[in-house]
Every structure is written in structure tokens, then in C-alpha cells.
Amino acid sequence: MDIQWYPGHMTKTIRQMQEDIKLVDLVIEVLDARIPVSSRNPDIDALAAGKARLLVLNKADLADERENTRWVRYYKEQGITAVLTDARNRGSVKNLMPAITEACREKTERDRARGMKERPIRTMIAGIPNVGKSTFINSFSGKAMTKTGNKPGVTRGKQWIRLGGRVELLDTPGLLWPKFEDKTVGENLALIGSINDQILDEGELALVLIRRLREGYPGKLALRYKIEETDTDLSCLEEIGRKRGCLRKGGEIDYGRAASILLDEYRSGVLGRISLETAPDKVITIAKDPQES
After folding, report:
1. Is residue 258 a part of any domain in this protein?
2. Could you tell me if residue 278 is inside a domain?
3. What's the pTM value of the predicted model, to 2 decimals?
4. CATH at residue 216
5. Could you tell me if residue 110 is inside a domain?
6. Residue 156's CB: how many other CB atoms inside 10 A?
7. Domains in the chain: how many in total?
8. Could you read off the pLDDT of 222-248 as tens digits, one per residue?
9. Taking the CB of residue 215, how many other CB atoms lie within 10 A of it?
10. Which of 121, 152, 171 finishes a domain?
């Protein structure tokens, strides 16, 4: 599959962010912990050059626990602070304030040396669609202050959010980049729901997921759907369809329904904690579940 998606409003978004970046001290980029490479927008790296940075590996509860630890260590070795979160759990974002303070320590000390009055840290929240930015902000602030949703494109326009007197957050719409040079990046983004499903062939995408699971997490499909992980990806999808009653008249498999069930159960974590990228290699491979190794 060669997946590309860059809606027109994203061009406007990047232009607005280029203006707004002048107002902030820190850029927090929210990533999906299951695909920390594919969900990191190279345009944000260029946009935030010279600014303090912090990476939030969100949806860590859906990712392989072993890989979460490896990714945090990998970024630390690169001199980058990365924090694991599950934005739906307010308790998991409590460690963000110390990380923000540390990321902006040099700036704060510089301001104090100049005799400048301490002011709130102005922070831009950036990331691709559907990585949980709005849910993260709501959990961090303790209030439902932004719209949230489980599909890309919920946040539109600029929103400043004050958190007491210490931090001001600027939420931004989800932003992709114009072309995915590596087709696996497009597949990964589609698998986690960052690409509009309406432009995708869900049947083909489900076959991609089956192949990745059979290679990296053998037994996951068999355990969940009570099937044999047979010789072909297509036959696995057919067996899932039969087990879940995805049948048309005459007993023909409804591949679309079967694919939708599989994708939904992966994205929601029903299939278990599964990472699609391993650290530190940039090559996109699937990690093995430590419980099954």
C-alpha cells in the first residue's frame, strides 16, 4: 500500500504555526508510543528549531511495555527528554510539570540572571492527527477544555489554555507532512487511525496488520479469534470473518466487516499491547511481546 494524505487545511495550519512559534518557549510534540518514528512530523522539527523541546509518548498503555522503556532510553541518549503517558489517565500526566520545568531550565535561569520577572512558560502542543493531543491537554489541565475525538481532524483553529500561573498551552490542529517517502510510515499512520479511513482500503490495511502480527507477535490472532494462523494473510482474515459472523448471503465472507473489526480491536488495545516500531533502529519492524518470547 502507498498511502498519502495531506488535506488542504494543513497548509494553513503550518503557516499559522510558523507565526505562533515566535510566541512560545517550549514545543511539546505528542507522539503515539506504538510508532514513535512514524508519528514524529519532520516539519515540526524544522518549525521548532531553537526552541526547548519535549516529547510525549502518548497511548503508552497500548504499546509494548518493553519497547516503551527502550524508546525513552533511546531519546535520552540523543539528549531528548521523552515522557510516557496515557492521556486518558490523569495520574499518568502528573510527571509532565517537572519535565516542562527541566526542559525550560536554561531559559528560566537566563531570565533570572537578566532580572526579568518570572512569567508563565508558553508552550505549543503539536502532533499528527489522532495521537491524543486534546485528551492529553484535558487531563493535564484537569478540565475538559478542548474537543476530543477518536478520529483525525477534531481540533481546528488556535486555542490558548492557562494552567494556573505556571504554564500556558497553545493547542494546534493535527498536522501531517506533504509526502511520506517511506510507504511503511503511511501504513503505520493508517493502522493507528491518523489517516482518514474513508480514503483507505480497509481490507488491504487489515492484511498489512495481519502480516505484521504474524511476524512479530505470533499467536496473538490465534488467541483472540480462536483461529489457526494459516499460510496466508488472506486466509487469516477469512477465518476472522467466519468466527465473527461477517458473512453475506450464501456464506460469502464480508471482508470489509472483518477488516473493520480487526482494525478497531488493534487500535483500542483489545489485541494487547503491541508496538509497530522498535528502538533504536529506524527500520520499521514489529516488536515481540516479552511474555511470548
Report:
1. yes
2. no
3. 0.85
4. 1.10.1580.10
5. yes
6. 13
7. 2
8. 999 999 988 799 999 999 999 999 999
9. 11
10. 171
